[in-house]
């Protein structure tokens, strides 16, 4: 989870987005369960954006970005990266 974990979720996402843009082949952002519109409205990211910017526009930009984040990444055909919450879902497909 990149957001809903403190007072600096906007700054965290801004830095991660800049790193992804600067190093697109080296930085992979994996979507967690908090990178969704519904969850961010419940757990604080929406409120943080409203307090810092006075409108929901920044929240909309980031939640649109979340829609494009991958759910998993495989590194060197050896390391499988996924948010921990997704493991529960994947267990059903064994």
TrEMBL record:
The family database entries (PROSITE patterns) matched by this protein are listed as: SER_THR_PHOSPHATASE (PS00125)
- UniProt key word S-adenosyl-L-methionine: no
Q: Which UniProt keywords apply?
A: Hydrolase, Manganese, Metal-binding
- Specify the domain of life of the species encoding this protein: Eukaryota
Q: What EC designation does it have?
A: 3.1.3.16
Which GO molecular-function terms appear in the entry? metal ion binding; protein serine/threonine phosphatase activity
The Serine/threonine specific protein phosphatases domain covers which part of the protein?
A: 30-35
In Swiss-Prot or TrEMBL terms, this protein is called protein-serine/threonine phosphatase
Organism, as annotated: Lunasporangiospora selenospora
